[in-house]
Amino acid sequence: MGNDPYFLKIGGIYKTGDTPRMSPATRRLRITRPTALPKAARPALPKPETKKRFVVIEDQTAIRELMCETIAANERCEVVGSSSDGQEGLALALSLRPDVLVVDILMPGLSGLDVLRRLSTGREGMRILVFSAKQEPHIVRSLVQIGIQGFVNKASPLAEFRQAVDALSKGGNWFTDGFDRTVREALASPSQSPDGLLDLLTPREREIAVLITRSNSSKEVASRLNISIKTAENHRANLMRKLGVRDVAGLVRYIIRQGLVDPSAG
């Protein structure tokens, strides 16, 4: 039977040395180990979804912390920075380049509108969610011109803010109830919107106008902005001329009417 160690017989296996009666064809059949099957390719695991990065600018500490907690509770989102000041918040937005910027309108220093105006030419891919109690037609008109993707009124339930965060993180838009009606009112009568003159001011002049409305003297304005008193006075004269107001009282009324300063904030 040769030197093969095993030979096949139906019903059993004979080892070398056995002398079973078998046909030559059967004798030549040899048991071999089965060829190992190739291991099945493991399916590729899906890559974890990259979280959307948020920056929050809100001057009230409790509200800001609640906003950050609400955003972080969404598995698609993370807060990479927050600020209580418009100027600092602008610097954060420019340095961190978040996917979504959440901003209030009324804040110390730069207002939310001024933050967005300064970002308007350099915020490619940055989506804007405004969270504010200011929903007057002239403010809404400015926000529409800037091109925001969401607006939640602070008087709304927290669930609406949560829904807006989720929508913007998915690339959608979200606006509080009544926002579209306010937009229609603002665009239907633009001549009645007093923000046209405000657009004539430079960012520095708007910043000084807000500081003056907050009862800062020319000396205090100069100190805060690191400019000379003479420069601060020149800016004040120029902005009052552009706005057509003759005294500080008129300037204060105008800035408050524009929603750049909250008179109840003190």
Task: Provide a quick synopsis of the model.
The chain is built from eleven helices and eight strands. The protein is an alpha/beta fold.
* Overall structural domain count: 2
| CATH architecture field of the largest domain | 3-Layer(aba) Sandwich
Alpha-carbon distance between the two ends: 109 Å
Derived structural class:
alpha/beta
DSSP E strands, number? 8
Enter the CATH topology name of the largest domain. Answer: Rossmann fold
Q: Write down the overall mean pLDDT.
A: 80
User: What's the helix-strand series?
Assistant: EEHEHEHEHEHEHEHHHHH
> Can you identify the CATH class of the largest domain?
Alpha Beta
Strand order of the largest sheet: 4-3-5-6-7-8
Task: Give the SSE map.
Blueprint: E1 6-9, E2 12-15, H1 24-28, E3 52-57, H2 61-72, E4 77-83, H3 86-96, E5 100-103, H4 112-119, E6 127-132, H5 137-146, E7 150-153, H6 158-169, E8 174-175, H7 179-188, H8 203-213, H9 218-225, H10 229-243, H11 248-257
Parallel strand pairs: 3-4, 3-5, 5-6, 6-7, 7-8
Antiparallel strand pairs: 1-2
Helix pairs in contact: 3-4, 5-7, 8-10, 8-11, 9-10
Descriptive overview:
- There is one protein chain.
- The chain has 266 residues and is an alpha/beta fold.
- It folds into two domains: 52-190, 3-Layer(aba) Sandwich (Rossmann fold); 198-265, Arc Repressor Mutant, subunit A, CATH 1.10.10.10.
- It is built from eleven helices and eight strands.
- It has helices spanning 24-28, 61-72, 86-96, 112-119, 137-146, 158-169, 179-188, 203-213, 218-225, 229-243, 248-257, and strands at 6-9, 12-15, 52-57, 77-83, 100-103, 127-132, 150-153, 174-175.
- A six-stranded parallel beta sheet has the order 4-3-5-6-7-8, with helices on both faces. The protein has a two-stranded antiparallel sheet with strand order 1-2.
- Helix 8 crosses helix 10.
- The N and C termini lie far apart (109 Å).
